[in-house]
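User: I'm putting together a teaching handout on how multi-component assemblies are represented. Below are the sequence lines for each component of a complex, exactly as they appear in our records. Could you produce the 3D structure of the whole assembly as structure tokens, so the students can see both representations side by side? Please keep the chain order the same as the input.
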Amino acid sequence: MIEWTADEMMTVASARTLAGARTCFVGIGLPSTAANLARKIHETGLVLIYESGTIGAKPSILPLSIGDGELAETADSVVPVPEIFNYWLQSGRCDVGFLGAAQVDRFANINTTTIGRARQPDLRLPGAGGAPEIAAHAGKVLITVRHSKRVFVDRLGFVTSVGFGTGAGDRERLGLQGAGPTEVITDLGIMKPDPGTRELTLVEVHPGVTVEQVVEATGWPLVVADEVATTPAPTENELSALRKLHADTKEAHSARS
Amino acid sequence: MAEITSLREAVNELVHDGDTVSLEGFTHLIPTLAGHEIIRQERRDLTLVRMTPDLVYDQMIGMGVARKLVFSWGGNPGVGSLHRFRDAVENGWPTPLEVDEHSHAGMANRYVAGASNLPFAVLRGYQGSGLVAESETISTVTCPFTGEELAAVAAVNPDVTVIHAQRADRQGNVQLWGILGVQKEAVLAAKRVIITVEEIVDELEPRPGGLVLPEWVVTAVAPVPGGAHPSYAAGYTTRDNSFYSDWDAISRDRDTFTEWMDEHVLDAELDSKGAAR
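Assistant: Of course. Below is the structure of the complete assembly, with chains in the same order as your input.
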């Protein structure tokens, strides 16, 4: 049997969720890795849109920042930043928004602003970036982040970007046009919002991970589906595509420095 | 007409204590060396504006140039935190830093409003976000046609906008291409404009996807080859990814940071072409 790491499983599981999507507004980091892997394994012409204004970027290596030259050079079109948010995201042209997060609560709301008091925080995080409007306007939202109690917290001190707010009906009340988060993919498993309550529910664990492990790594009493599936293990094709992407990236960056 | 001058003179004449200053650049074309010149000339109490403050703003904040930061994402792209920014917000070192945090969409539209001579911009955004309660520049407006409530953000009109571009001609017309970010809007929203360029040429040949800012919207042009480092200027330089990684260790500690700034910024002299040595 081929072996893989928890991070590889997370990235492969994330990439699989993009099957059939046409346009994806991509955050940098884990989402970008997964979205680029999705381009390699699905071959359905997934259009990657980065907030730097690059539409249809086809990088052969993983970008370190949302403004790497590789993104602009391989894009179908490069537009100014106000345009990318107004004409391409706010207009509802992005099927999927793919986000990372510093903290997530049970309704898939995201904090990337501060931990502690807002004005004099214990920890100043990088800030909102494109996420509030991606979370609002993308047809649906995927969140990928490593699973721990520091990330999945009982209560957010600050809500930067809204998932389901306070629960069922809140997105509609706030006038958010997209469907909101449909999956939260971690290195332990996959959570989906309950269709009724909108609370995140554990529906899948990755191979070798127990339900108890996921519950233990979550900062609130995690709701567990009646039947928890096991994520299909990464295929050889998926793993080799991901590893090639990482190897090519490493080689390109060491050649440049 | 734009004056072609040195970076030192441009900063000396156009950037004043207490100004609202925007050094824009979305990963590409970041005017790093212009920021260093502002540090060397010891400007104080600046309100710094930028969508994506990264290393140069970390340096300016750590050197005590800024009183306030208006921004939407402040980090070291692909690496992690900005330690000087965090130290200023969390511990008030070297001076307290007020923040006005927006989303990217909000900031981009604030510049659009500023460039359009409008007091505010309208967007669908911020619904349910905690940012609304923390910012005095986010509100709502009711559409007079549909009655729909929408987000309103105050215009940004910097006293000075500083950008880096690939080249200018001898009249001061400036050409840039590649990822253009929000630079056009930041320039047109500003009262005064400083642009550093890789080179001055006799004639600007057209570039696909390029943008020309006519000399009459630019106050000063200064040749500063490599002025975006560790960012890059497409067609001239490449992004110095390893410096972004190195910055994490340099900036983590106050003393290490101060020593690095002393050696590489304060003691650096600009050569005849404008680049720091």
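A couple of points students might notice: Chain A is about 30% helix and 20% strand. Residues 236-256 of chain A form the longest helix (21 residues).
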